[in-house]
Amino acid sequence: MQSRTSENxxxxxxxxxxxxxxxxxxxxxxxxxxxxxxxxxxxxxLLGSSGSGKSTLLNLIAGLDRPTSGNIFVNGRDLGAMTSxxxxxxxxxxxxxxxxxxxxxPRMTLEENVELPLRLAEVSRTERAARVxxxxxxxxxxxxxRHRPSELSGGEQQRSALARALVNRPQILLADEPTGNxxxxxxxxxxxxISELNSHLGMTVxxxxxxxxxxxxxxxxxxxxxxxxxxxADANLLAAGEDAEPASRVP
Amino acid sequence: MKRExxxxxxxxxxxxxxLRNSLTTLGIGVGVASLVALLSLGAGxxxxxxxxxxxxxxxxxxxxxxxxxxxxxxxxxxxxxxxPAVLRPLDDSVRRDIAALPHVIEVYPEIRMQTDIGFAGHTxxxxxxxxxxxxxxxxxFENMHGKFFSGDQxxxxxxxxxxxxxxxxxxxxxxxxDTGSPARPSAPPAATPAASPxxxxxxxxxxxxxxxxxxxxxxxxxxxxxxxxxxxxxERQQPAxxxxxxxxxxxxxxxxxxxxxxxxxxxxxxxxxxxxxxxxxxxxxxxxxxVRRELPLRIVGIIETAPYAGLTGSSxxxxxxxxxxxxxxxPVLPSSLRDLMQGTQPSETTYxxxxxxxxTPTYVPATQEAIRKIGFRTFSLLxxxxxxxxxxxxxxxxxxxxxxxxxxxxxxxxxNTLVMSVLERRREIGILKALGASDxxxxxxxFAEAGAMGIAGGLLGVALGWLIxxxxxxxxxxxxxxxxxxxxxxxxxxxxxxxGAIVFSIVVSLLSGLYxxxxxxxxxxxxxxxYE
Lengths: 251, 532
Ligand SMILES: Nc1ncnc2c1ncn2[C@@H]1O[C@H](COP(=O)(O)OP(=O)(O)OP(=O)(O)O)[C@@H](O)[C@H]1O
Ligand SMILES: [Mg+2]
Fold this sequence. Notes:
The complex is a heterodimer.
Chain A: H1 4-7, E1 10-23, E2 26-39, E3 43-48, H2 54-62, E4 69-74, E5 77-78, H3 84-93, E6 95-99, H4 110-120, H5 125-138, H6 154-166, E7 172-176, H7 184-201, E8 204-209, H8 212-218, E9 221-226, E10 229-230, H9 235-240
Parallel strand pairs in A: 3-8, 3-9, 6-7, 7-8
Antiparallel strand pairs in A: 1-2, 1-4, 4-5, 9-10
Helix pairs in contact in A: 4-5, 4-6, 5-6, 6-7
Chain B: H1 3-16, H2 18-56, E1 61-65, H3 77-80, H4 92-99, E2 104-109, E3 112-119, E4 122-131, E5 145-146, E6 156-160, H5 161-172, H6 218-224, E7 228-237, H7 239-243, E8 253-254, H8 262-268, E9 289-303, E10 319-322, H9 323-329, H10 334-342, E11 353-358, H11 364-374, E12 377-380, H12 382-424, H13 426-434, H14 439-482, H15 495-522, H16 525-530
The complex binds adenosine-5'-triphosphate and magnesium ion.
Magnesium ion binds next to helix 2 of chain A.
């Protein structure tokens, strides 16, 4: 794959990206012509009200979904041109995901949950054990590694999910309202750790949230979405926004 | 995903819905078991029949005839008679030639004569057949009283139950004339006055104490075993030997100049027609002389049904002697008379028919061809086996279809279970995909689950089918034992059937997993993760 865009230090580049859903007669534009550039190592927040298309955009970046039209490049690779096998590999190796609903395997222990991406990536058994321990250590859950998700608090579950997202050492962390199901203390704890991953490991972070305070506190840049479109700023302004300050505001 | 991880995950998933999955597996097991049981039945029956037929010698023997004997009855032999080889008599040289062919176990003449048998001062009438040593394998000898001939030329006789019963009856009724010589041990061939009237074996009232049907009881058999009977036959002698009186002391030469052979006259059963001593001596110049002889034979065995010994059928023979002994006796046979008419050199033995026994029925066609090339006609029952095999093939197909029905129903169970599982595990599949599982990984995971159920169901089914087979064999064994019949395995589970059933079960399970696996692989992770 070409790496021209990644040479420019861009982790993610979306060009007039669209994702439509047909519901009978009506056409729902979940993502409606989004152009966006995210530099490698940047921490951006996607802010918008419910139904504005934040999750859809995130899923397109994650390679879980395919655009209806437009292009999405991650590390210079065109996700739209990838086979489903290549997309799976992209999800395995390039991105890590955290969800609002944690999405842990309920019948697996924390350890096993964190190990799952390593199994999918065919990492050897011995290395798996070491990496699982390392990831759990990072989120402070080593003592609870043999517990099942149901035996943990929401905050602990989300920390496990975070451990699982980073165990494959992805370059990009995609977090879809990771604090949505947590109280403010646990939410802050998660955000602190994500922030740490960004600052210490240089991980690119895309945070989806509808909490403006959270976005402003942790993200270097905030992108506003409404009805599938980026608001109040055009792509050039966004691309130029290198000051790590919120580039636009909700009108 | 690595295979070990795939299987581990699959095993995990199976254990999570243990009850449902074991019920599904049990369903497959029952399906496989029914298939295995039915096919074992087919295999068992086929083996039973095949074994019987092979042992009977029906299908690995073939008959050899001279086309000369068929010329009159077969029109198509006309062109063959142009070939000089065709006119070669069926004699010892031909016998040696055939014996030298590959896969030929033995070649023996078919010797069968209708003759008189002296016993306890009575004369009984029977057809006597010669048996080759290989006849011992025939199941006719399976549950016999006594044993088979001790040697190829042993002066011994095996009699059939009906005839044995006549012998028993004869023993009880005193001989009509005292002149009749009773069975003597090791009596040399000697002339006996044939004055004893033929014993009416089936005379009403005679031997009322003896059961009329069924096998002989052991004490009944014991009364006969070891006793001797006198075989009366006509020996064919070369004129030179017969002329010298010193060579055949005590032998009364008989006339053989009637149109009908001696056996034919014996068949009429009228004592008056039978040649008597002093009827006149006449030696036929161009042919051979016929000498009346008696040979004491010890009864060594009693069998219920006649074995297959030749081509014209020994089934109505009731007395059997070793074939080598029969040949040594040089009895006058219907073919002898033909030799006489056709002016064959008296020094040579010609046969009416030779029986060729091969190692397996497979070689029958090739051997038939080889013998035809020598210039003789052959006859075999192989075509009948082909027919039989076809019947069994059809039977097997039917049994397999019926057996498969249960397995197909069970496979629907797999489809159902896995589809349910896909629906239930939507979210888990979505998570797997989000974590980087490819469509193929998901597909393989469900295949592994289906395959595992197939393996487990297959093993269970074969074990179950085996148990069913054992049960049925046990039950029929008890039944057969009650009927005084030998134990038979009705169901047979050869290793290839068991292995095939397991493979089939896995294949069916994987096919059943096809749709659920495709469905799981197609699952849109965005949708799957959307709802909580
Ligand atoms: N499969 C689908 N079929 C039809 N419409 C869909 C589908 N998925 C998403 N949408 C619609 O697309 C729009 C964007 O959805 P999306 O989930 O991206 O919103 P969101 O910004 O993440 O909202 P929230 O903050 O509530 O999570 C919504 O109007 C939603 O109803
Ligand atoms: Mg959302």
